[in-house]
Write a structure and sequence with these properties.
InterPro entries: Cyt_B5-like_heme/steroid-bd (IPR001199), Cyt_B5-like_heme/steroid_sf (IPR036400), MAPR/NEUFC/NENF-like (IPR050577)
Transmembrane segments: 7-25
CATH superfamily of the largest domain: Cytochrome b5-like heme/steroid binding domain
Low-confidence stretches: 13-56
Bound molecules: protoporphyrin IX containing FE
Largest sheet: 4 strands, mixed
Order of helices and strands: HHEHEEHHHEHEEEEHEEE
CATH architecture of the largest domain: Roll
Shape: elongated
Pfam families: Cyt-b5
Distance between the termini: 105 Å
CATH class of the largest domain: Alpha Beta
Keywords: Coiled coil, Membrane, Transmembrane, Transmembrane helix
Strand content: 15-25%
Structural class: alpha+beta
Family: Belongs to the cytochrome b5 family. MAPR subfamily.
Amino acid sequence: MFGLFKSVFKLQFLFVIVAILAGVYHTEVKQFLRRYTDSYLDQAGGSDEIPVAFQTGDEALFTAAELETFNGEEGRPLYLALLGSVFDVSRGIKHYGAGCSYNFFVGRDASVSFISGEFENYDPKVADDVLTLKPDDLIGLAGWRDFYQKDYIYKGKLIGRFYNEKGDLTAYHHKYLALLEQAQDAKKEAEELRNRYPGCNIEWSEAKGTRVWCTNTSGDGKTRSSSGYPRKLYSRGNKNFQCACVPESELDEINAGEKAAHGDVMLKPYDNCQPRALECFYRV
Ligand code: HEM
């Protein structure tokens, strides 16, 4: 009985010592655990299954100078940042290692170069200034971010344009997200429009001018049940028109006058073309 009491006491004493040591060396312990789990995930090839949101409690904040040191030298890992998020790309060493094609991206946030392909003229002041990019490029860049999130290990945030010293989103970051959402909405709207009003076939000849006509695969090449009828489609802020194939059900409305069809899009009949003609001719 006394023996059992002694071993329980010893065990408790051991726990107290371990707890004290863990408290004093908590940073080292954390780093050790992190390194251990990272290498485990690497071996298991499973890091891509960990959503970033799960790691937010343990993500690091990097200054630009700190990030620069993760350059693969002296056994250090290879990190890069994209849109202010830091990723460990060590296992892509064949792309990112010294002398490899994409080593330029290591140790910095050069988000703009993912779109421009400019790896030579590096100006750190604007290398991550993405608000100047076109809407489609913002979508492309978001695709790169998804790629790193899926294929590499998320490490934390870079203090700078996208995150402040506390790791909170900056006003710039909010602006970027708003522009990205706008770009995605516009893309979705354009896709919906293309589905609703597929493009026409088009040809030009000296004798007849421009001929437009619809078939049940014109536009996107996908087969649909009916060919539709050619109409002029004007997009927002654009005085030029494209030819769109409009379904039978919408013809009367369009023929009756101008019609706002989808958002700010306008559909009009071609001049000198019968309401149910399958082809129309015009000269500009
Ligand atoms: C804007 C220009 C470009 C950027 C930003 C870019 C970026 C990248 C990056 C970051 C990777 C590594 C992906 C990974 O971690 O797995 C990569 C891979 C690759 N890139 Fe590019 N790239 C560009 C243009 C090109 C061009 C023009 C070509 C071809 C002529 C090309 C061919 C490749 C190939 C073949 C790989 C895969 C290599 C492999 O898996 O072994 N890239 N690219």
